[in-house]
Write a structure and sequence with these properties.
Largest sheet: 3 strands, antiparallel
Structural class: alpha+beta
Helix content: 25-40%
Radius of gyration: 23 Å
Strand order of the largest sheet: 1-2-3
Number of strands: 3
Strand content: 15-25%
Shape: elongated
Oligomer: single chain
Length: about 110
């Protein structure tokens, strides 16, 4: 028995901080499912590549639409809709989510 305890202690020391935690996270605030959040992204002195990069980022987020912790438990999946407005005129609407490429509606 003493030999087994020594061996267990040896491996615990070698593992250091790599030990697997089974503790649940209860001390963090979580947003309830199904709520609508609103925000804005403003690009000052935008260049064509700025919008292209933003669209590429939204497309990647749409293909894997998960933010935050606890995603392994099915939490954090998002959907969203973004209006691209240039000089006060709606140019595009980008819709993300559903593990699909982003959908872009272009207005002329």
């Amino acid at each position: 028995m003493v030999e087994a305890e020594k061996l267990a202690k040896k491996y615990e020391d070698e593992m250091g901080d790599m030990e697997v935690s089974t503790k649940a996270i209860f001390s963090h605030f979580e947003l309830p499912a199904g709520i609508d959040l609103h925000g804005r992204i403003v690009i000052m002195d935008a260049k064509d590549r700025d919008l292209e990069m933003l669209e590429m980022g939204l497309d990647e987020l749409s293909k894997n639409p998960v933010l935050g912790a606890q995603s392994a438990r099915g939490c954090g999946e998002i959907t969203g809709s973004f209006d691209v407005v240039v000089d006060g005129e709606l140019k595009k609407k980008i819709t993300i989510g559903g593990y699909q490429p982003a959908n872009t509606d272009v207005f002329l």
